[in-house]
Amino acid sequence: MDEGTLNASAIPIIDFGPFLDGFNKHEVAGKMVSSFKEIGFVYLMNHGIPTEKSAEMFEWSKRFFAQPMEVKKLAPHPPSGAHHRGYSSPGQEKVVQHVYHPDAIAEQRAQAPDVKESFECGREEDELQPNIWLPEGVLPGFKEACLDFFWLCHGVELNILRALAIGLGLSEDYFLQYHTDPRNQLRLLHYPSVPTEGLETEKIARIGQHSDFGSITLLLQDDVGGLEVEDPNVAGSFCPAPPIPGALVVNAGDFLMRWSNDTIRSTIHRVRAPPQNRSVDGMTPERYSIPYFCCADFTTVVDCIPGTWSAERPKKYEPISAQEYIMKRMLATY
């Protein structure tokens, strides 16, 4: 990839089928790791999430966000980001990038608000972050659909981690031993229709520029568009990562980048107005997406992956536990 030439076509589209059926594991794994080293993002086809399952989850998401505000607030997200579960209303969360001091967090939160609403859940038996559901009888079937989709995504996550391990020259189960206790987060996102001019002038934001902070993120998006990825060679230059029918967007998070001694990139991205002028009467259409954030076991203490450091390429970071790192990042968002 030449400097300054990142565009949508620079994010590879990879058929994951030959990895899943064992036909050509090493070639697929090599392509994935190459993309993660260069761009930090990849589109996966034949990834293991059936089209009908993703369509069903999007329908549940639309049904949930169509509920009156007083109903959605029956499953309220706690005030602290340390407990990332339940419903967040527009403007409640402000994504910040590597900012931890209270004054700096307040300064970033005072900028254009993130005009989105979300619902988050994890596995039921997570004692650190228990799920927060709507009361029994309100939107029947929603809880079951979310949990079913959570575990479906978890299975896909493990296959992707297997591929990354092979691509890095490690044993196939290398990352699996550190992902045995899923502290993952399924997030349903709804971006209401907003004035296009407000997005273009950055008076309002859908999600400001940020990197994810776990191991990897899986993303399903509707056909509206608006996701943009920063060119890793040109700071501040972004290109669209448009929806591709049937594709799963996968990107590396900061924790994996640190784990790999910066061999793998965790790339800045954001959500703005769609690249095409799709506004109607000056309003950008509403958008839905479903990210699934994956992180290592909280007991994992990250040092550098074998093969990513040497005397000529020394370790850049001190060891840190997944729990310490993830919680620090979560607390900054609320």
Automatic annotation (TrEMBL):
Pfam families: 2OG-FeII_Oxy, DIOX_N. The lineage of its organism: Eukaryota, Fungi, Dikarya, Basidiomycota, Agaricomycotina. InterPro entries: DIOX_N, IPNS-like_FE2OG_OXY, IPNS-like_sf, Oxoglu/Fe-dep_dioxygenase_dom. Residues 182-296 form the Fe2OG dioxygenase domain. Gene3D superfamilies: B-lactam Antibiotic, Isopenicillin N Synthase, Chain (2.60.120.330). PANTHER family: FI07970P-RELATED (PTHR10209:SF881), OXIDOREDUCTASE, 2OG-FE II OXYGENASE FAMILY PROTEIN (PTHR10209). One of its GO terms (molecular function) is dioxygenase activity. This is Thymine dioxygenase. Signal peptide: none annotated. Belongs to the iron/ascorbate-dependent oxidoreductase family. Keywords: Dioxygenase, Iron, Metal-binding, Oxidoreductase. It comes from Mycena albidolilacea. It comes from the Eukaryota.
